[in-house]
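Now for our target.
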Amino acid sequence: MAKDRSFAAKVAKALSDGGGGNHCPECGEHLSPVKLVVSEKSEEKNSWKFNQRIVHVCKCNQAEVYG
């Protein structure tokens, strides 16, 4: 029989240290995944290209990612 847990209990477990969440090795903060989209101009076709990637943000690298 499965355990009944509320959504709030599942979120609390995921954010706790025992939940296996990602934490920054430098500051110990929780890492938040953010999609970073960078637009670049192509020289050969004279058009714009959008590069997307997922980066993990905490207090250590927040200024680098957000600008």
Q: What stands out?
A: Residues 22-66 form one domain. Helices lie at 7-15, 62-66.
